[in-house]
TrEMBL record:
<dbReference type="InterPro" id="IPR036922">
    <property type="entry name" value="Rieske_2Fe-2S_sf"/>
</dbReference>
<dbReference type="Pfam" id="PF13806">
    <property type="entry name" value="Rieske_2"/>
</dbReference>
<keyword id="KW-0534">Nitrate assimilation</keyword>
<protein>
    <submittedName>
        <fullName>Nitrite reductase small subunit NirD</fullName>
    </submittedName>
</protein>
<dbReference type="InterPro" id="IPR012748">
    <property type="entry name" value="Rieske-like_NirD"/>
</dbReference>
<keyword id="KW-0560">Oxidoreductase</keyword>
<dbReference type="InterPro" id="IPR017881">
    <property type="entry name" value="NirD"/>
</dbReference>
<dbReference type="GO" id="GO:0042128">
    <property type="term" value="P:nitrate assimilation"/>
</dbReference>
<dbReference type="GO" id="GO:0051537">
    <property type="term" value="F:2 iron, 2 sulfur cluster binding"/>
</dbReference>
<dbReference type="GO" id="GO:0008942">
    <property type="term" value="F:nitrite reductase [NAD(P)H] activity"/>
</dbReference>
<feature type="domain" description="Rieske-like [2Fe-2S]">
    <location>
        <begin position="4"/>
        <end position="107"/>
    </location>
</feature>
């Protein structure tokens, strides 16, 4: 079972930048990529820098794949799969995003609390 948790309004998102929200006790970083009009949600925790900072990372794309650059050591993470472009052994959790009536919800699955 996984739960959809409403976290903010569409208006709270900042184009091509991140915000951090709390969802089910987890810090989730939300990004709105204006060029492709998509919202992505990933863990705010940087597994390499070991700090909750990813919402402050820069977004863009690598070879057409939406990505986020950590503000700490500049590793790049896919916003769709969570994989780290520089280290195949490392990934961040990604969360499905749903937008309904101008409200943004993320889906938290049980494994994500590990
Ligand atoms: S969100 Fe990563 S395992 Fe479920």
């Amino acid at each position: 079972m996984s739960d959809w948790i409403e976290v903010c309004g569409l208006d709270d998102l900042i184009a091509d930048s991140g915000i951090c929200v709390l969802a089910g006790g987890r810090q989730v970083a939300l990004f709105y990529l204006s060029k492709i009009d998509q919202v992505y949600a990933v863990d705010n925790f940087d597994p390499i820098g070991k700090a909750n900072v990813l919402a402050r990372g820069m977004v863009g794309d690598i070879g057409g794949e939406p990505m986020l650059a950590s503000p700490l050591y500049k590793q790049h993470f896919s916003l769709t799969s969570g994989r780290c472009f520089e280290d195949a052994d490392i990934h961040i959790h990604t969360y499905p995003v749903r937008i309904s009536q101008q409200r943004v919800a993320v889906q938290i699955c049980p494994e994500s609390s590990l």
